[in-house]
Amino acid sequence: MLKKSSLRLLTLILLATAILGISCEREKPANTQEVRFVVEKGSSANAVAAALARAGLVRNKAFFLALLKLRGLEDDIKAGTYRIPGGSSLSSLLSILTEGRVSQRRVTIPEGSTLRTIAALLEDAGVCESPAFLDAAGDKDLAQALGLPGSNFEGFLYPDTYVFPEDSEARKVAERMVARFFSKYQELSGHAKPEARVLLDQVILASIVEREYRLASEAGLIASVFKNRLALGMPLQSCATVVYVITEKLGKEHPSVLYYSDLKIPDPYNSYLHRGLPPGPISNPGQEALKAVLDTPKSEYLYFRIKDATIGSHRFSKSFEEHTGETIPVKGY
Predict the structure, then answer these.
(1) What is the pLDDT of residues 165-208, one digit of tens each?
(2) CB 188 within 8 A of CB 294
(3) What are the extents of the domains in the chain?
(4) Which of 93, 149, 232, 272 is the most exposed place for a label (fewest CB within 10 A)?
């Protein structure tokens, strides 16, 4: 008797599975266009089913829930932002949501980008909102937890091409970019990060070199000029630091040309007014700039100026006499 009951139950289950499977493949959602669909963290299966129905991705909420339960997937729906193809069957929809096939966003961060620029690029790419990223990158506790020597992430967000889930958590995006920085730093230096002050000074100088060089072959020489000036107690006199003050500190438009009055802007980042390195990085340096600072060629140069603006080459000088009589190169910052 027990065996017959078990057999009937098994038959009913198999029949129900077959019917649901066939119906699932036959039923198409009313919406035939791609739909952006968000599953919030902690959402119940019932809440997700209701949202799917409202979005026109399923016609029958109860049917979706029954299929979910039959397959034992009630707790397997993954949070995230999805792009559901138009006309997806329930079976496909179920697979997308339970396998966590969230929408991915590709973004390229150019070398020398500032924190504010990176935040805008991430928002434009649909990775995360700019204010949220700026908040995360300005979190002193998070910076300390990640081993950053400064108070924010400027200089340590490695410029590269990334693929992030759409609507990512800003904190995770920042953490990944910092992890990429330290990975690249170790690759270039051959060792783990040094003492905090040493690391910060290296990154500050690399961030200036990044904004000054145009030809990779000259990055090392530009780094040598700045190191030589620092050793002699000379001000760096980098136009890039002045541009940083204008755009990032004062919030003004990027200048097409610098005037002598700009060189007198009272700010600790202005390397025309203050000797030594500025308080922090002025950009997020890439491989060439980091390499130039970590392995700087020896030279006696103390000055450089633009030689060919079309290709961005410079002429390097050992004395002020060689350097005098030239206009300040500012275009292209």
Answers:
(1) 999 999 999 999 999 999 999 999 988 788 999 999 999 999 99
(2) yes
(3) 21-98, 104-189, 196-323
(4) 232
Residue with tokens 């390229």: 108
Distance of CA 136 to the CA centre of its chain: 12
pLDDT tens per residue across span 210-229: 999 999 999 999 999 999 99
As given in the structure block, the two tokens for residue 294 are: 């970590």
Q: Name which CATH class applies to 104-189.
A: alpha beta
- CA 52, CA 39: separation in Å to the nearest integer? 10
pTM, two decimal places: 0.83
Q: Can you name the residues that pair with 209 across neighbouring β-strands?
A: none
Give CA–CA dist 224/247, Å, rounded.
26
Quick check: do 21-98 and 104-189 share a fold? yes
d(CA 201, CA 189): 15
What residues form DSSP beta bridges with 104?
165
The H or E element containing residue 64 is: helix 61-70
Cα 206 to Cα 210, 230, 280, 302, distances in angstroms: 6, 14, 11, 17
Give the pLDDT confidence score for residue 312 in this predicted structure: 85
Contact status, residue 180 vs residue 187, Cβ threshold 8 Å: no
Q: What are phi and psi of 268, to 5 degrees?
A: -60, -20
Q: Model confidence over 187-196: pLDDT tens digits?
A: 999 887 889 9
Q: Which is it for the CA torsion 274, 150, 222, 210, positive or negative? A: negative
Q: Which is nearest to 133 in space by CA: 111, 149, 112, 109? A: 109
According to CATH, the superfamily of the domain at 21-98 is: Endolytic murein transglycosylase (3.30.1490.480)
Contacts of 99 (CB under 8 A, 6+ apart): 78
Q: Report d(CA 127, CA 103) in Å as an integer.
A: 10
Q: Compute the distance between CA of residue 159 and CA of residue 124 in angstroms, rounded to an integer.
A: 16
Give the pair of three-digit tokens for residue 79. Answer: 């949070």
Reported as a pLDDT band with limits 50, 70 and 90, residue 32 is: confident
d(CA 219, CA 313) in angstroms, rounded, equals 10
